[in-house]
Amino acid sequence: MRMRLAYILGASLSMAACTASMDSPVTPDGSPGQISPAACGADTVQGKLGASYANLPASTWPTPNRVEKPGSMLTMDYRPDRLRIQLDAHGKIVALRCG
Questions:
Q1: Of the chain's two ends, which shows fewer C-beta atoms within 10 Å, N or C?
Q2: pLDDT tens digits, residue range 73-90?
Q3: 67 and 22 Cβ atoms separated by less than 8 Å
């Protein structure tokens, strides 16, 4: 019974640690931070919002980058130098941000 309780407690604590928002970077002191769109090149591609991702060549995007489709599994690592290209269900670009 103790093993089961320890397992449940451990799983609960692990899940609680995964509640941070990917859109809200945290500074080393634990306070919310702001990342400039220039940190990942998002400022240079904002004109692509609303375009079809499939119609744009790979050379369009700064690297590193990550394409995020609805329902796709993503890691929770935060990289201020990475461009996040967020798509809607139709493959249209709905957001370009760092992280």
A1: N
A2: 999 888 999 999 999 999
A3: no
